[in-house]
Amino acid sequence: MARNTARAGPGTSVHLTETCEADQPHLLIHVATTPAPESDVSMTEVIQADLQEAQMLPSQHLLDTGYINADVLASSQHRFGIEVVSPAHPDVKWQANTNQGIDASQFVIDWEHKQATCPQGKTSVSWTPTFDPRHHEVIKIRFSTKDCQVCPVVSLCTSSKSRAPRRLVSVRPQHQYEALQAARKLQATKEFSEQYALRQGIEATISEASARLWLASLSLYWPGQDPSPASWHSCSYQHGSRGCMVRWRRTRSHTCFGFPEALRCRLAGFPNSVKSGYEPR
Question: What is the pTM of this model?
Answer without folding.
Answer: 0.68
